[in-house]
From TrEMBL:
Domain of life: Bacteria
Name under which the protein is recorded: Uncharacterized protein
Length: 62
């Protein structure tokens, strides 16, 4: 299903439009700022190995 999905429609949305759509979806639960503060960042093993080797982390895909 995702293989046939037209991602250009999603790419055309602004962050504000995405948040508004998530808030309008009754099945979506957006975390609060307090919940976000409790999350731990977990780096993939490959990124951890690269950092140990002195390589700077790669930027996330936008």
């Amino acid at each position: 299903m995702l293989r046939d999905f037209d991602w250009s429609k999603v790419d055309a949305l602004t962050d504000e439009q995405i948040v508004a759509a998530a808030k309008a979806d009754p099945d979506s639960i957006l975390p609060t700022e307090a919940e976000l503060a409790e999350f731990d960042l977990v780096l993939p093993a490959k990124a951890r190995r690269e950092m140990k080797a002195g390589k700077p982390p790669k930027e996330a895909a936008e």
